[in-house]
Amino acid sequence: MRSPFRSVSPIRAASVVAASLLVSGSLAACGGGDTASTPTPNVPSGVSSLASDAASNAASAAASASAAVGAAAQLPASWPTDIPTPTGLSLLRVIPSPTTANGKIAIYYGEGDLAAVSSQMTSGLTSAGYSEVSNKEVGPMMISTWKKKDTNVSLNINAAAGKVTCSVSANPLS
Length: 174
Fold this sequence. Notes:
The chain is 33% helix and 29% strand. The chain is an alpha+beta fold. A hairpin with a 2-residue loop joins β5 and β6. The longest helix is centred in the first third of the chain and has 23 residues, at 45-67.
């Protein structure tokens, strides 16, 4: 039988543990100074170990996530050099693709115009020899997919209040 704890992210688990500790501490503080009437909870030893492990895993995940965000973020060496980068936007992070083992998603963000970023990325991919497979607008979002030989690229560009997010997915990466 699969444990339900395996599907919970370390950050979410740590958040639950932290919130539980905060609520417990608040309730204890509200109880006044009479500790004789406060029952001692019966907590199985495995639960405290699980909470400690979750907190440790969350701290590790947060440290590695912050190392890959902002100024420290960079494209992997295997990233195709012919995929354009959106002008004026900063690379925030690169994450593994949830849909393919050999893919990555580069997330860019900054001030800009949706139409200008879309035009620049479309022009750059076309100039690099990619063929557009699909293109659609959904509200303030532009989604397109591209292909060149065995490389697939997906663009997801959206904007609000003068800020633009451009997610570029590439797979497979060698």
